[in-house]
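Ticket closed. Logging final result for NAD(P)/FAD-dependent oxidoreductase.
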Amino acid sequence: MTDDLTDQREYDVVVIGGGPAGQTAGLYTTRLGHSTAVVERGGGRAAMMRNVHNLLGVTEDTSGTEYLETGREQLESYGCNVDRDFVSSVSPTDDERFRVCGSDVDYVAESIVLATGFNDVRPQPPLPRTGRGLHYCLHCDAYMFVDEPVYVMGHGDSAATVAAIMLNFTDTVDLLTRGAEPTWSDETATMLEAHPIDVVREDVTSVRNGEDGWLEALEFADGSVREYRGGFAMYGSEYNNGLATDLGCERNDDGTVAVDDHGRTSVDGVYAVGDLTPGHNQVPVALGEGAKAGIAIHWAQREFPRDGDETAATDAVRDEEVPGIPDELLEQAVSFHTYD
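Final structure:
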């Protein structure tokens, strides 16, 4: 039951998570005429990006924080509400909608988009600085280390595979197990033996950075020093799937939320996009997923065309019923136009 003092706001769509996927879903539903709120707690993987890579039209002098702030401004300019809030729960309502409980506000909507992402599991310190020697995305950052000495931290199959992939970019790759016993398979062990990868078992004891803050070398427990320009930590991911679990959405074995090609989950009216779902964890991919979910929601919620049974029961659509866009978004769209 909702506290009488709780502020309740009603929307067609509530997006939980303000990263690239969530923002894009909100952008599409708003511009397609559905009242939308994007509720975000701040931070996230995209906000941590020192430089945005692989995003056409966005130069690499743009930080993740700057990129997301531009997105917020765009959303608000179209009439989307962007709220900084922490969502504690989501539950169905008696009228087949969803109640999203924030800190001081309850959001009620017909459709929910989960864009809560995941957190990279960080190795224990000492560590290089994130974004200046410690990286998590091979496809984003491998280009930065062409012909440079590189490390990969980890002790499982994924770490060994990434180390081998990095041989496509440089001839100096070390795999650092940091004192942990390797858990990779016999097949992976054979693969490592067949590639010029040094497996360093000693733990890291200190980090040497240059004047610009970038990693220069790592020191190890046996007293050795190895020079690196950067590397990747491969210790897995922790998916922020608690809300999806509470709603009864089907999950995959790795913790991702199962979705179809349009972001629909196993629960009607609930969509999931971005890093919370299977696939490449890339900003351009997240944008596409957000767009597809936004369009799918529009198909599910749009007023027209009405089906034959509905028009037969209510007569033809009257002139005063169109356009089928809420007044506040209609006014926003008209004022936004710059054709004159």
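The longest strand covers residues 7-16. No further action required.
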